[in-house]
Structures are given as structure tokens and as C-alpha cells.
Amino acid sequence: xxxxxxxxxxxxxxxxxxxxxxxxxxxxxHPQASRLSYLGLFAIQHRGQESTGIVALDGQAHHIxxxxxxxxxxxxEQTLNALPGTSAIGHVRYSTTGMNSLNNAQPLTxxxxxxxxxxxxxxxxxxxxxxxxxxxxxxxxxQGSNDTEIILHMIARNPSSDLxxxxxxxxxxxxxxxxLTVLSHKALFAARDPxxxxxxxxxxxxxxxxxxxxxxxxxxTCAFDLIGARFVREIExxxxxxxxxxxxxxxxxxxxxxxxxxxxxxxxxxxxxxxVFGESVYEVRKRAGQILARxxxxxxxxxxxxxDSGVPAAIGYANESGKxxxxxxxxxxxxxxxxxxxxxxxxxxxxxxxxxxxxxxLKGKRVVVVDDSLVRGTTSRKIVxxxxxxxxxxxxxxxxxxxxxxxxxxxxxxxEKSQLIAANQSLESIRQFVGADTLGYLSLNGLKSAVRGxxxxxxxxxxxxxxxxxxxxxxxxxxxxxxGI
Length: 485
Ligand code: AMP
What we know:
This protein is an alpha+beta fold. It has helices spanning 33-43, 71-74, 77-81, 128-137, 149-157, 163-172, 222-227, 263-269, 281-295, 311-321, 359-362, 378-389, 421-424, 427-434, 444-450, 461-464; strands at residues 23-28, 51-58, 61-68, 87-93, 108-112, 115-125, 176-184, 187-192, 201-209, 212-218, 229-234, 239-244, 247-252, 261-262, 275-276, 279-280, 302-305, 329-331, 355-357, 366-371, 394-399, 438-441, 458-459. The chain folds into two domains: 23-257, Glutamine Phosphoribosylpyrophosphate, subunit 1, domain 1 (4-Layer Sandwich), CATH 3.60.20.10; 267-335 and 349-476, Rossmann fold (3-Layer(aba) Sandwich).
């Protein structure tokens, strides 16, 4: 279940133990560049809620505002007024590498040989450790513990005076996932790793300034919808796109790789109103639900989603099965960071703080409950319990994704393998653990047909353990940032 723009307090028994990765945004040639960035970041808030930042460029000067928390908490009129300039980049972060601290909040900035440079990164660089070691040996000092700083150091150490060549040289050495926005006083760059793990899209505003178009770059197209920008195209895997005074340009990295777009963007991460990797996320999720219904049919009275992220798949399931779609669980959207946990002496609200099952809908019914994914199983167990407690006669759990069996090293902060229930238990013992009458997952082939990626082109390592890059020992280390529910 996604915390759409809201956050869950530390003590919440329903807090997630792993999080979304990050989101990036960029604007070139607009008098309100930082305000557009603010709106763009607001639209992609679901991709990270721990810290956010905007860097605006006004001539040669960087104006920077970063903070811990949500976009709406960190920025206000005053802070946005203090970010003048016609170009800006922004970032929302959940730490996939490095602890959450202001030092790790992005965009990262530096004053390099030819002026100020800012970088915002979504993804995870799998050879970060060996590269950091090499840079340290050459004298680099790292301020934070994230992998993005490496890019700035490698740019700084390149003898060329041409920022494009320095950036290209740095990116050629990276392995893993990166969708980047980079801002200098001369250009806005947008770059995507050669495997295209994370999305990155290019747009334009209809109105022009100084007779030139305004360019925007974002992790997801939903950011364009909010600011009224037109989707132009995806930044291609391996592409460095840039726009400067002379117009738009593009080159490709020499490193060639086969495409490995993250299938989990479609399963869970991206907003359903975005078009990701050329496909509507909503339609993909609905198709996944339809295929799931065919693959795991059962005699029931109604289909109910786990709100919000299970909704499109549940619609697909209901359409295919011909059974009614009902809102059997209602979600409270107002659980903010400051929510005060009720003391145990009053009551253990548990999952009910967020989700309330409707007895009027569920009593005496045989229901299919559809969720987007099942990872540790603890959420599903609570949800199945809720639905039963509201009087459902049979509870059949259906998951619109295959069993999650392997951790992600490309920007999704998943628990380590020992905590992934499907990596360690059979279907039957998972069913018993969650307490459902039956349990059914979407097959990997089913998911591939839903994303229309039968011919390949997707990374599904979290489901099949086939990592498309070398892991540089990451799989041998304990995964960081894991919080218990
Ligand atoms: P679990 O209790 O671990 O099985 O949690 C499954 C729930 O977590 C599902 O409702 C998903 O919507 C949600 N989920 C899946 N992946 C993530 C993620 N990377 N971050 C946060 N929530 C997630």
C-alpha cells in the first residue's frame, strides 16, 4: 500500500520496512523554475518522502533549499522566493544507499572548475563501493554516504574543461541504475543508464519564454500533467540529453547493454496516472488483474482491493471474473508524520489506523482480496485478519505480481532475502501464515504479458533472481535501512 504523499510515524505498527526509491525533476528556461520544480516534486512525492530539495540557477549563482520531510513541509512562499533563476532541478528521496540525513539530501552541489554543478539521482550504483575506494585513494573526501557524490567527484577529476565530456566520462564508469538531472550555468542535462532501469521523461511547456521553449524532465509523466507540460518522449537508455542556449542535443554512452527496465515500477512504484516505459501504469495494473483472474479463478461473491495500490488490479480482476468490485476496506489518507500513537493502555489500533473493513459490505461474503505485491507477508496477514473480523465467510488473497524472492540492488530498498517470505517458504505455508482460504500469485509470464514485455527488456530480478549486472559483492552484505514493522 502506498503512502500517497503522506507519511507514517516511526512507531506505526504498519510502517513499511522498505521504501520507494527517489524521484527527479528539472526545468530549463522558465522565469518560475523553482515553483515549477516544487509542483513537479509534489506530483512525484510517492517516490520518496524522507527528504527533498531544489537547486535553482540564477546566472552563475546556485540557490539551494533542502530539508528532511515532504515537499509541502520543506518549501513555502519564502523559501521559493529565495530560489530565483530560470533553471532548476529537484529531488525527492528515500534513502536506498546511505542513511537519511541532510548530508544525503539531494540535489548535491559543487563548485567545479567551470562553475556550479548540481546533480539529482534516482537509482542505485552497484559499483559505488569500488569507485569510492578508488576516489578516496586519490584524495576525495565524501560528505555523505550516498552513491551520487561519486558522480560529482568523477566529474571534478576529469581533466577536460567540457562538462559534457566530464559527465560522459563519469557515467561510462558507473554500473547499475541511474536516472539523473544535472544542472550547470550553461545547460540542463538528463541522463539514463544504458539499461534504463528507472524511468525518465522529457516534456515541454506550450508557452515560450524569450522565444525559446521551456524544457522539463521528470521521473514520471504525472509531474507534467500537474504543470501543464506536454510529454515529448522518454530519455532513452544510455542517452545524455541536454539543452542549452543553442537548443537541445543528445549523445549516447559508448557502453551498450540490453534494456532492463524495472518491472516493479509497473507493479507498485509509479503512480497509476503515469505513462512509464511507454505504457500506462493503470492499464498495465488492470491487465495484470485480468490475467491474475484467469490464472487463479475461484468461486466468490465479490472482489475487493487493498487500497490504494491494489485498486487497478482489482478492477481488472473483477472485470475478468464478472464479479462485483466493492470497496470492502476504506483507507484513511490523513496519517501524517505527526500522528500520535495511541498508548497500548487505550487500545492497539494496529492496522485499523489506516484501513477499516466495512462490515456492511463483507459480512457473510466470499471475497477475493487483491493486492499489488506480497513481500514479507505481514501486511497481508493483517489485512486478511481485518476482512475476516468484518464477517467475510471466505477470504481468497490474490497478488497481482509473482512471489518476491530476491532483494533489489537497483534502487528499490527491499528487505534482505531472509525476510522475503516467498524466498523461504512454500505457497502453502505462506497461505497459512497470512490466514487466507486460498492464495494465488500472478505468474511471471502473466506479468510480462501485462507489461507487454514478452520479448524481454525488463528487469524482474526481484521475482526471478536474475540480476542483469554484476553485483560487486552487494549480495554478500546485509542490506541497510531495514526497519521492522
Ligand atoms: P508485506 O507485508 O511485506 O508483504 O507488504 C506488502 C505490501 O507492501 C503491499 O501492500 C505493497 O503494496 C506494499 N509494498 C510493496 N513494495 C513496497 C515497497 N518497496 N515499499 C513500500 N511498500 C511496498
